[in-house]
Amino acid sequence: MGGRVTRVFRNFNVENRASREISKEKPMAAPRHRTAQLDAMADSPEIKEEVLRKDDRFLTLLKDVYVESRDPPVRVKDGGGEHLPSKREEKRLTKLGHLEGLDVNKVPKGKISLVEALTLLNNHKLQPQIWTAEKIAAEYSLELKEVNSLLEFFIPFAVQEFPKETKKAITSHKPKKLT
């Protein structure tokens, strides 16, 4: 319903309004900037000839110009006793066994990779008498204090399966019916 009403007002006296707009005098274009006129003049042959012509006076002045460039002397900055370490970090090969493809091959001394950490934690959990903190520190080139902290605060997950009898006992229990 609303569309019909708006269409009537929109189409009212359309032809008269259109002819009035067409018969109006066209607006004047804005004046061009000076640079636009210069661009138009740049295409003229006189200006091109002037640009390409060599001036002997300028050439002689240009020959008199001599530029000599020197780099400033290189200064070594004094860091105030701070020196970069000249020794490269020692690296060791990882001890991964069958998980070799999962981890990096070389690790800096004093650090371990993620797979090695999980392996040593699991070994310590399964055989704590054999894999003591001292042996792990010697094996992986770690500090004893760090190994003790690692064994104290990180424990690998253990998967536990419940025996089948327990499952039957739970599923065989029938709830009481309320009457």
UniProtKB/TrEMBL annotation:
Specify one Pfam family: UPF0240
A Gene Ontology biological process in which this protein takes part is: mitochondrial respiratory chain complex I assembly
Entry GO terms, CC:
mitochondrion
Region Disordered: which residues? 19-41
Q: Which family does it belong to?
A: Belongs to the NDUFAF4 family.
Q: How does it assemble?
A: Binds calmodulin. Interacts with NDUFAF3.
Q: Which PANTHER family match?
A: NADH DEHYDROGENASE [UBIQUINONE] 1 ALPHA SUBCOMPLEX ASSEMBLY FACTOR 4, UPF0240 PROTEIN
What is this protein's record name? Answer: NADH dehydrogenase [ubiquinone] 1 alpha subcomplex assembly factor 4
